[in-house]
Amino acid sequence: MNASATEAGTDLLARGRRGDSLAGVGIIDMHAHLHVGWGVPGDTGADAIVASMDRAGIAKTLITPSAPVSAADQRRENDNVLKALRAYPERLMGYIRLWPTAEPVSHAQAEARIAEGFTGVKILSTLGVPFTHPSYEVFVAVANEQRRPVLFHTWGQEAELSGVRELAARYPEASLLAGHAGSANEEAYIELARDCENVYLELTLSFSPRGLVDRFVAAVGAGKVVWGSDTALFSQAQQLGKVFGACISDQEKMQILSGNANGILGRIRT
Amino acid sequence: MSIALFDVQAGFGGPKYGETEVVTAGDWAREMRRLDIEGALVRIMPDGLVRDPPDANEDLFAACEEHPAMVPCPILIPAGAHDVPSEAEQVATAVARGAGAAFLRPEMDLWDLDEWCSGRLFAALEARRLPAFCSAGKFTFSQVADVARRYPALPLILAEVHYLNQRRIVPLLAAFANVFLSMGSNYVVFQGLELIVGELGPERVLFGTGFPQAEPMGAIMQLAYAGIPDDAKRLIGRGNAARLMEGIQR
C-alpha cells in the first residue's frame, strides 16, 4: 500500500471512525429503496430511512421502489415513493421505477408521470429487457430534455454497459448513473465512464472491495463517481465506509459524497 | 466516541486468484494503525492457497509474534490420517502459541463433521474453550447448529455471512448461546445489528472487517452509526471478543 496515500483524507476518516455527525458534509445518497423485503428486519419505510440518515447526518436520499411483480404493482410502489417524498420533502427525493410494457408509452405520458414528483428515472436489467426498450427509452428522452438523472441497475454485463453507452450517446443531457459499478468487469465500467461524459459510476455494493474507490478515482477522477447505499437493504453507514476509508483526499471524498450529486441535481431543468 | 475495536475477521498472505498483490502482516498492521484498530484475530488468506496447514500455521504464528496486536487463528484438522499431531496436541500448541480461535475448513482439508471423523477435534477445542471460526462459506447454518448442539461449551464464531441470511441468523443465535456472529463483510443488512441487539442483547455480535478483501471502514462505520446504545457498541467493538479470548483455558 502507498504510505503517502494512506495519509490523505484523514479528517473525514477520523470523523467516520469516531461516529461523529456528518451533517455538515451535505452527503447525498443517490441510490436507495423503499420497502425492501428479503428478510430485512423491521420497518424499511420512509421513517426508518430518515432515522438512518439522521444517525449519520446524511442530507438527502433518492429512493425508488424495490421489487414489484407487475406493471400494476409497479405503479402502486411508485405511488408509495411519492407518498414518502411528500412526507419528507426536504430529505427524500425519488426515481420513478420503470416496468417494461408492450403497449407504447407516449412522450406526454412519460413527462406527466415524472412530473408527479419524481427527480429521476430508475431502470433495471433484471427483468431481461434491454435498457434501450422503447417503454424505457421514452422516459430517458424526457430525462434528457429536463437534464434529469437516470439510474441503471447494472452488474458488469456487456449488454447492460453497452445499453448505457448507447443511451449516453443519444441523450447527452441526461446524467446516467451506472449502478453497482465494480460489481464485476471493473475495467469495463472505467472505460464507460471515460468514454461517456454524462456517465457516472455509482458505488452501491454490499461487498466493498478494498481499493475500488481509489482505483475508480485514479482512473476516471473523483468527478465521475457518485455515492449510493442501497438502503433500506444495506446499512447506509456501512456503505459510506468505502468512501471514508479510501486513500484519496477529503476534497475527492466530498466530491463523491456530495459535490457530484449536487451538480447532477442542480442542473435539472423543469 | 471512538469505540475500541478488535477485528475477528481479518488476515493476510497470498494473492487473490488472478492477481499479484500480496497483502502482508505489515500491511495489515499499518492499516490497523490508520483505522485505530487495537487488535485482530488473523488467518492466512486467501486460505484456498493453504494445502499444508501446519506449515501455514507456522508462518501465521511467526507473523503474530512480530506483530503483537495480532492474535493467530490457525487451521486445525482431525488427526485421523496420522499426518498431523493428535487433536489435543494441536489445540495445546495453538493455545500455547497464543491462538484466539481455530479456523476450521472441513471440505478444504478433506474431513467431515460427523463424530467418527472430527469428534476428537471438537472435544479438544471444547475442553480448552478455544473458539471455532466457522466461515459461512465453509459451513452451512445447519452444520453450525449441529456443532453448537453437540458441543455447547464450544464458542463458534460465524463469519463471512451474507446479508440476506437474516431469517437463518437470528433463530440460530437465539437457539444456541455458544454461537457468535461476526459483523464483518458481508453482514451489511439494514438494521441487522439493531435487531440482534434488541432481540438477543449485545453479547452475541463480534466486530469484524473482512480485510484484506473488504474495505474495513465499512464495518467500522456500520457499528459507529448503528442505532444501538454506546455500551452495546463497546461490547461488539471489543468487549465480546475479549471475553471469548479470556475464556480460553490456557
How is the secondary structure organized here?
The complex is a heterodimer of chains A (270) and B (250).
Chain A (H helix, E strand, L loop, with lengths): L2 H4 L3 H9 L9 E7 L11 H11 L3 E6 L5 H17 L4 E6 L9 H8 L5 E4 L10 H12 L3 E5 L4 H13 L4 E5 L6 H10 L3 E4 L9 H9 L4 E2 L9 H9 L5 H17 L4
Parallel strand pairs in A: 1-2, 2-3, 3-4, 4-5, 5-6, 6-7, 7-8
Helix pairs in contact in A: 5-6, 7-8
Chain B lengths: L5 E7 L12 H11 L3 E6 L8 H14 L3 E3 L14 H10 L5 E2 L11 H14 L3 E4 L5 H10 L5 E4 L6 H10 L3 E4 L9 H9 L4 E2 L10 H8 L5 H17 L4
Parallel strand pairs in B: 1-2, 2-3, 4-5, 5-6, 6-7, 7-8
Helix pairs in contact in B: 3-4
The total count of strands of chain A amounts to 8
Oligomer: heterodimer
Whole-angstrom Rg of chain A: 18 Å
CATH class of chain A: Alpha Beta
How much helical structure, as a percent, in the residues of chain B? Answer: 40-55%
The termini of chain B sit apart by 33 Å
Mean pLDDT of chain A: 94
Approximately how much helix is present in the residues of chain A? Answer: 40-55%
Gyration radius from CA atoms of chain B, angstroms: 17 Å
Largest protein interface? A-B, 43 and 41 residues
| Largest β sheet strand count, sense and barrel closure of chain B | 5 strands, parallel
Secondary structure class of chain B reads alpha/beta
Give the total of beta strands of chain B: 8
Query: Span between N and C termini of chain A?
Result: 46 Å
